[in-house]
Records
---
Amino acid sequence: MIKQIATLIFITLCAMTSFGQKPESLFDGKTLKGWKQVVGKATYGVKDGMIVGTTVKDSPNSYLVTDRAYGDFVLELDVMIEGEANNSGIQTRSHIDPAGDNGKGRVYGRQVEVDPSSRAWSGGIYDEARRLWLYPLSLHPEAKPLFKKAAFNHYKVECIGNETKTWLNGKPVAYVVDTLDKTGFIGLQVHGAGDNAGLVGRKVYFKNISIQTENLKPAPFPKGIYAVNYTPNTLSAYEKANGYELLFDGRSSAGWRGAYKSTFPEKGWEIGNGTITVQPSNGGESTNGGDIVTENQYGAFDLTFDFKLTEGANSGVKYFVTLSEANKGSAIGLEFQVLDDEKHPDAKLGKDGNRTLSSLYDLIKGKKDRSNYRRIGEWNTGRVVVYPDNRVEHYLNGIKTLEYVRGSAAFRELVAGSKYKDWKKFGEAARGHILLQDHGNKVSFRSIKIKPL
């Protein structure tokens, strides 16, 4: 009996040690021990149990960062920011490039946003000084009202393996799967004020900063929230549970064939290194391998695809392609324009920019700025959502660029003034193929996935 009791006590103590660990405090409430300032001239101090960062004139973004790097962790803290024009963020697994910004140094890495502006993207995930927005809240607009102005907001950030998830005031916000940065420091940002006198002297307050690094278990995330996955040609367990399927396996042409053909083109397309690439052929439309389409057809859906342009290239991703027109050249369908806006002449044709990147080709301009698309030769992500009620949205790198309603009076008026005017009920089919266009320029695609709605 004594041996059994001793064994029970031992097991209980082990359980308490393994699963009863409390999070570690990263801030003692009195000093900046364990932290150091890098980059920028903003001031950081301690007052009333809070870290207080204050903006100064003519300073770039400033950062107070941990002395040590962290890999897997759950971080929690409370943040309050003054004003609605100010901005801040929480760096996770981040780094510093000493040569950046002409030798002044530059912090880069994933940042959880603190955004009191009307844009309201707090809790979203930004890749500071690198890829820019990874998870803007246009991907999860229901989370935009969670941030409380002129009050403390509770942030929770879970980084386990390749997954980063965020919560704001107890509610889920963002979900990113990313292969970059296995470890890095945690940082508290004071955004640069530049020469804007109205932003000088604005404060950001941080308190109750704690971290747990051992015996971590991923917290559940509710179904139905869009997740961003930067692992090429894969579906995370969360995406699978939400009904997504890959349209390209990264290795073969399975599920695809040539438009107006029964098999995949013998030339003009190359599959390798996890990409499916249309080969250059002097810019001619469907004169080499021709367009390719999915074997299956889709009605309402959520489609995501990565694309990489070469200089001056033109292509497109079309949807509701019925192949009933039997036309020459590229098959007919609604098109998410894929284009080098600066170097391809098509960007200056059409009406009011409706042939530029992310536009509904020849119908509606995709509104964007430099903050939401990446340079030629880098991967961008397009997204098309078609709802069962015929509402359609285009996104570029997570930011919505346009919306419209198929079959509406406004839509039909646009069609009547476009190159599609001669096609009866253009774009209004109940179902259709997804198409990758051969426009005679080299463009690569990967991570093509779809969720039927």
---
Amino acid sequence: MRGSAPGPGSPCTNVKGEPHALELPGSDIELRTVLEELRRKREIRRIFGAAVQSSVDYVLDGARTGRFDLSSPLVDSDERRTVGTKLQYHLLDALGLPKLRSPDTCIAGVPVDVKGTVGKNWSIPREAQCELCILVKIDAQRDTHSAWLMRTHRVWLYGGQGNRDQKRGIITEALKQYAVPLYPEASLTRNPLRLLDAAGVAAVFDPHAGLVTRLAELFTRLPNTVFARDVIATVGFQLDDPLRRARQAKERVKSAGLELLVGQWVQDRKRASLAGFNLPKDGWVAVPLDRRHSPSPGELIDP
């Protein structure tokens, strides 16, 4: 939500009725202390990205539900909100921080809340208003994540008294001016199932076809694409031993002019390397039988 954002020196009152003046982030000693502590962490973008990815995967629960897209109508709004809840636990664990009741944690002796959103804004609860918050944004359609550190002053929030839980969103201009980015916007690993068109999804998840047939459809419709174990489990959701069924798809994939390489086997990993792929031990990739293919820019290769 857009709107004017009061500047430094303007008055604000916290939930306890205590008045205080707004400060720039650089003048907020507690914010600077927390920021310095976070920036001491090596590969902070990777840490946040892994926590976001694990939170999304937990909610999608592909091996049980067959879901692979957080923005899908198959995922309801309550479940999307659950991503933020799981993110608190996963992120604090990854950062080696304690999980407290209120606030969420303490960094260098400073109380800090962690708020995640899959939408465009955050719901700041009453107890976190005028306090420091780590704000994490997940863009499910663009497969990106971002994070900021901000003192969420009440005058920088919209919604009056808030919703029935007294939660309020952040004014867009306040976020732009007074939230400190923790890292540049970063990419999440896109589930390759999202590369399928409507006909491909229908074929790969056809309830009337056997799993070997469906997996053969997956490999032949998306050649030169590395699939992790969890992708295979999502296609074979609620079925026994989908990995064995994937291995059984080798002959059907071969009839389509492709060789299915399985990271479980050393020789297959070597052949994948010759074809230009870094195939992990739990990975799968279908490459042309002549193996002269080199992956073009944009094709999915596991790091």
